[in-house]
Amino acid sequence: MTAPLTPHEHPNFPPYPTGGAGSGGSGDDKESPRAEIGRGALIALIVAVLGVVLGLLWLWLAPRIPMVSDGQAVYLKDTEGEEAIGADGMFALIAAVLGAVTAVLAFWRYRRGGVSVVLGLAVGGLVASVIGWRIGVWLGPPTDIVAHAKAVGPKKVFDGPLELRARSALVAWPAAAMLVHLCLTSAFGPRDPDPLPKAAPGPWGPPPPPPTAPH
Questions:
Q1: For residue 192, is it within any domain?
Q2: How would you class 114 by CB atoms within 10 Å of its CB: exposed for 0-12, middle for 13-18, buried for 19 or more?
Q3: Does an H or E element contain 33, and which?
């Protein structure tokens, strides 16, 4: 037989698990603000450079606006044509597709996400849209319609300038990028760890008593 335990004696249970060091969630893996800003600036720069691709694709795929001159004035060859609206729609469509692609690439590279990634996609997408718009206009047909009509001659059909009449199409890229990135982060992004780890079943002793204030 063993002697009974006295009130001052306790069985040697294993220590009760706590959320101390080594349990994760210590917050030491947070990046510095400088690293966050640098990452956002890098994303914005790379996305902005892709505006050249937007401009070239828009120039290639946008419908042309046929025009004709009678020697005194310039007219639309087809007054009921929808080429002008089609150019705006094509710009918005290409920009939205490129915005979705850049969002997927950014999420694949920076799975943890963050405000810097979203801001980089938004700012870079807006700058890329402006660059693509200006490149398309610059490389497209001449913007001086009168001089172009005189150079072509009367009764000759020529292409009108490539214009973006609906300036709201400039936000198609950043809007699509932020929306796609938000969906990817919500579906496949990392989850926050539990605030306290769950105690595994076992012969744990009683939890340590809370600290008492000194008298």
A1: no
A2: middle
A3: helix 33-49
Domain count of the fold of the chain: 1
Is there a domain that residue 122 lies in?
yes
Q: Which amino acid would we find at residue 191?
A: R
CA distances from 56 to 59, 60, 62, 91, 204 (A): 5, 6, 10, 11, 68
**Cα separation of the two ends of the chain:** 43
Q: What is the pTM of this model?
A: 0.71
Residue-wise burial string across 121-146, b where 16 or more C-beta atoms lie within 10 A, e elsewhere: bbbbbbbbbbbbbebbbeebbeeeee
> How many angstroms separate the CA atoms of 135 and 53, rounded?
9
Domain hosting 89: range is 36-185
Task: Provide the phi-psi class of 144: left if phi over 0, else alpha when psi is between -120 and 50, else beta.
Answer: beta
Per-residue pLDDT tens over the stretch 65-123: 888 887 777 767 766 566 778 899 999 999 999 999 999 999 998 887 788 999 999 99
Task: For residue 22, tell me if it sits in a domain.
Answer: no
